[in-house]
Amino acid sequence: MQSTESRPIPSNVDPSEIQKFSDLAHRWWDPSSEFKPLHEINPLRLEWINNVVPLAGKKVIDIGCGGGILAESMAKRKALVTGIDLSDKALKVADLHSLETGIQVRYEKIAAESIAEKEAGQYDVVTCMEMLEHVPDPASIIKACARLVKPGGKVFFSTINRNPKAYLFAIIGAEYVLQMLPKGTHDYEKFITPAELTQDIRNAGLIVDAMKGMSYNPLTQIYSLNSDTSVNYLVACTRP
Fold first, then answer.
1. Predicted local distance difference test score (pLDDT) of residue 10
2. Is 233 helix (H, G, I), strand (E, B) or coil?
3. Angle at 226 between CA 222 and CA 141, to 5 degrees
């Protein structure tokens, strides 16, 4: 169940980012809403994670879980899932959907750094998807993920590359031309190159196992995983 006790807002959070997604929280599980891209990429990222480490029976934490799309899908694969976020509204939506479906997920309002202090080394799998580009200090989140995972456990990240093509596709294309996302969803300056992410991962004591690109074809309106990391990409890591 979700914890709603009042906590001080941690330093590694942009209140405008929390508000941005809180304002849309009631539409999280509407597959035709602003969250349509998340619904469409979720099967891809779920299968990739499950192929790297079979989820059944694993203790998993999803950092920045939002309305619970990934968290709930991992729980359907028989994982024991905790989802954390700092948006009360998103967590309430996630909790309600979990009650409606009967798929059990533990949701809690807590920062990644805070839960890493309480539950260090307790998780087989840590996921942090589409979040790093929305926080002031992504390296701090990566370190928290590294603390949460057990030795030998897996950590998964996804984010957006920072280059002209990513600006064209993720902001101009997705937000303004195709209107797949609300204008202002992303800040180009917060995008993260694979080299930067890899360095932060290594600094946190993790080993990079694999990197995948994720592309969207506007003609077929289909997402796919491939080797093109120029826009969206995913990384799998291990804590040695």
1. 56
2. strand
3. 95
